[in-house]
Every structure is written in C-alpha cells, then in structure tokens.
Amino acid sequence: MEHFDDVDAYLAASTGWPDEIRALRTILLGCKLDEAIKWGKPTYAHGGSNLVIVQEFKNFLALLFVKGALLDDTEGVLHDQGPNSRSGKRMQFTSVDDVRRLAEVIPAYIEQAIAVEESGAEVGPAPEPEMVEELQERLDADPALAAAFAGLTPGRRREYHLYFRARNSPPHVRPGSRNTSRRSSPGRVSAIAETNQHCGSAHGEITCLASNDHRGRSGSRKQTVTWPLAP
C-alpha cells in the first residue's frame, strides 16, 4: 500500500479521479469533518469516528459511508458494495458534474451518519446462513471436523458457507482472505480463527487443523482433518 502524508499528497499522485476527489473534498470539508489518510485512502471522521472513505475504482469514484446500511437513503443514491456486504454503502461518481449534482445531498447524508454514530447504533451481525447440504452431511459424519468448524468465529463460518455455496466457481477464492481477487498458490491454504484453530480449502479438499493448546502455535498439539470435496 502506497503511503501518503496527507490528502494533498494523495491528490498529487492520483491518476484516476483527481478532479472528482477535489470537488468531493470541498463538500466534505464544508461539513466540518476531520480529514486524514487511512488505509491509503482519504478518510473523513467526526468525533474520532470514521464516517466516509473516498475510494478510487477503475470505472467510478466512490464515497463509502461506513455505516451506510443504517442511513435512510431517501434519494436512492447509495449502492451496495457487493452481494455479501452488510454495513458499508457507497455513492458513485463518474464526473465532476455527478459530484456537483449531489452537492446538497451529501451534507444531508453526512448529518445522518453523524447522528448514527452519536446514537451508538451498530449494524447487527449477519444471521447464520442455511447450511449447505453437503457441508452439513460432512460435519455430521466427522465429529473432529465439526468441532474445528464450530470453533471458528461466526464471520469465518459465514465465509465458508458462502465459499461452498459458490463451489461451481474456480477454487481460487480463499475463505478468510482479505483480498478475494488474489489467487492462492498450489497446496492447502489456511484461514486462522481467533481460537488458534485453522480451516482451509484448496484444490478439491477442506482441511481443518484444531489446536489443543491456545498458548500459541509453537509446540501446540494439533489434529489435522482432511475432507475431500465431492466432485
């Protein structure tokens, strides 16, 4: 990730949407937000809480509202990030005129975002998805695998549900990966849970590695359970 000291430096290096970012920046600073570079992107906060992040994509510029799912989208200008996103929603721009057209809408949504933060509201956890039939059958048949799977965090279990539900796709998406566009190298890939248990999948099999010692990976006794996936 490239480092920028401030938004001026970011803009000087931008080759995607610099003019649109400048127009958007004027509006956001007019809302009395605190500006900083976080995660390599212009980020705007209020009272220490991040409200919006400016994101450059190939085909559009996005203004991501961190808790956009809790806003009342009266103007119909918020877009989901993806089919599995729950909290963030974004406005999308392809020209300076797009930004100017929302010059009065953006501050109103910022006010909403501030009110959401001050209320302490949070986006609730995703419900447990319906278990994929094949996965449920394997867990029922293998207590060690079921125990390792149950030890994962709810979010990690959800990622595996989504992964196996989409198994007809090429198996290069790694559950637990922060960048799902990255291709995994041959062999097994591990996703690490908070309880020092591991589950991973690659090239037609799922592997769970359950640790009996939560003091750390070094010297822990582990049990490996490998489960070939049905074709």
Task: Please tally the helical runs, counting DSSP H or I stretches of 4 or more residues.
Answer: 7
Q: What class do helices, strands and sheet pairing give?
A: alpha+beta
The fraction of residues in strands falls at 15-25%
Characterize the biggest β-sheet. Answer: 6 strands, antiparallel
As residue ranges, the low-confidence spans are 168-231
Task: Determine the oligomeric state from the structure.
Answer: single chain
* DSSP summary, beta strand count: 10
Give the helices and strands as they follow along the chain.
Answer: HHEEEEEEHHHHHEEEE
Range of helix content = 25-40%
Averaging pLDDT over every residue, what do you get?
Answer: 76
Identify the strand order in the major beta sheet: 1-2-3-4-6-5
Distance between the termini: 38 Å
Shape: elongated
Rg over alpha carbons = 22 Å
Topology record:
Elements: H1 7-13, H2 18-30, E1 34-38, E2 41-46, E3 49-56, E4 61-65, E5 79-80, E6 89-93, H3 96-101, H4 105-119, H5 133-141, H6 143-150, H7 154-165, E7 191-192, E8 198-202, E9 205-211, E10 222-228
Antiparallel strand pairs: 1-2, 2-3, 3-4, 4-6, 5-6, 7-8, 8-9, 9-10
Helix pairs in contact: 5-6
Report on this structure.
Helix content is 30%, strand content 23%. The chain has 231 residues and is of the alpha+beta class. Strands 1-2-3-4-6-5 form a six-stranded antiparallel β-sheet. β1 and β2 form a beta hairpin. It is elongated. The C terminus is likely disordered.
